[in-house]
Design brief:
about 180 residues; alpha/beta; binds zinc ion
Length: about 180
C-alpha cells in the first residue's frame, strides 16, 4: 500500500513536471480579474491553432506569444486556451486550470480548451503531440478539473469551423471519451 502510494505520488509529480509554466513563454502574469471556471467541468474541447507549427521550445514559445497577441487583438482577455500542445511534444500552460477560457462560445463555462499548435486540416499531429494531449487530459482528471466521465469533442462539434482539422478530428474519434455531441 505504501509502495503504491509512493508510486502514485511519483507518477503524479512526473506528470505535473511535464507542464511548461506560462512564465516560460509569457512575460505578463495572468490578471487576477480573469473569470474563474467552476470545476470539475464535463467537457474537453480540442482545437488547433491554425498557425505555424513549432518543433523546439524556442520556436514554440515564440508561436505562443504570437497566438496570445492575436487573441488580445481580437479583444480576448488573454490567450483563449487553457493549455497548448507544442510540436516539441511539450504541454504549455496557457490560462492553466481554474480559469474560464475563450475558445468555444456557449461552452467556455463548461469546458477546458486544449489546442494543438499548428494546422491539422491536411495531416495528423506527430505522435508525441497526441501523447502530450492524452497526458494533460489525464492530469486534468487526476486534479479533478474535469469529471472522470468527461466528454471529449473537437471545436467543430460546437460550431461551424474547420478546427481542429479533419485529420485530428478523425484521430480524436478513436479516443475513449470522444462523444458525437457536446
Ligand atoms: Zn478551435
Amino acid at each position: 500500500m505504501k509502495l503504491q502510494l509512493a508510486l502514485l505520488v511519483f507518477g503524479l509529480t512526473l506528470a505535473l513536471g511535464q507542464i511548461v509554466p506560462r512564465r516560460s513563454w509569457c512575460p505578463a502574469p495572468l490578471s487576477p480579474r480573469l473569470p474563474r471556471l467552476s470545476v470539475p467541468v464535463r467537457l474537453i474541447v480540442i482545437h488547433h491553432t491554425a498557425t505555424a507549427s513549432c518543433s523546439n521550445p524556442h520556436q514554440c514559445q515564440s508561436v505562443l506569444r504570437q497566438i496570445r497577441a492575436d487573441h488580445l487583438r481580437r479583444k480576448f482577455r488573454d490567450i483563449g486556451y487553457n493549455f497548448l500542445i507544442g510540436g516539441d511534444g511539450r504541454i504549455y500552460e496557457g490560462l492553466g486550470f481554474g480559469i474560464r477560457g475563450e475558445h468555444a462560445p456557449n461552452y467556455n463555462s463548461q469546458s477546458i480548451g486544449i489546442a494543438f499548435i499548428g494546422n491539422f486540416q491536411n495531416g495528423l499531429p506527430p505522435s508525441q503531440m497526441l501523447q502530450a494531449a492524452r497526458t494533460i487530459i489525464q492530469i486534468a482528471v487526476q486534479r479533478r478539473q474535469v469529471l472522470p466521465n468527461y466528454a471529449l469533442v473537437g471545436h467543430c462539434q460546437t460550431k461551424a469551423t474547420a478546427c481542429p482539422g479533419k485529420h485530428l478530428l478523425d484521430e480524436l474519434r478513436k479516443w475513449p471519451r470522444w462523444q458525437p455531441k457536446p
